[in-house]
């Protein structure tokens, strides 16, 4: 379909109804830091978060240990085309952690 504009110099006003599509559920985490085995207490656990399909936005990561203690972890942008971030945390207790 071809669209011919009658107003070629028209610009959208700030706050116009067109907003970027965000879908946080499309962010994907992978890597050894979120695997059920192989991580050791007091050793850095590293994983990657891929946000390319989720849209633009701010990434916030929380780690919750088995005791229920919640800690915010700072993601480091990799500045690549897939908009990935590297996340490193140190498990303080043994057991399953929630990301």
UniProtKB/TrEMBL annotation:
* Xref: InterPro entries: Filamin, Filamin/ABP280_repeat-like, Filamin/ABP280_rpt, Ig-like_fold, Ig_E-set
Stretch list, region Disordered: 1-35
Q: Name one GO molecular function term.
A: actin filament binding
Its BP terms in the Gene Ontology are:
actin cytoskeleton organization
Q: Which UniProt keywords apply?
A: Repeat
Pfam families recorded:
Filamin
Filamin repeats (start-end): 19-99
**Member of which family?**
Belongs to the filamin family.
Q: In its UniProt entry, what is this protein called? A: Filamin-B
């Amino acid at each position: 379909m071809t669209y011919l504009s009658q107003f070629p110099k028209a610009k959208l006003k700030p706050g116009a109804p067109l907003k970027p599509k965000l879908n946080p559920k499309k962010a994907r985490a992978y890597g050894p830091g979120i695997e059920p085995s192989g991580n050791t207490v007091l050793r850095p656990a590293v994983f990657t978060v891929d946000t390319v399909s989720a849209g633009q936005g701010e990434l916030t990561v929380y780690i919750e240990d088995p005791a229920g203690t919640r800690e915010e972890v700072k993601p480091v942008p990799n500045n690549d085309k897939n908009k990935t971030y590297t996340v490193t945390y140190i498990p303080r207790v043994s057991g399953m952690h929630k990301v």
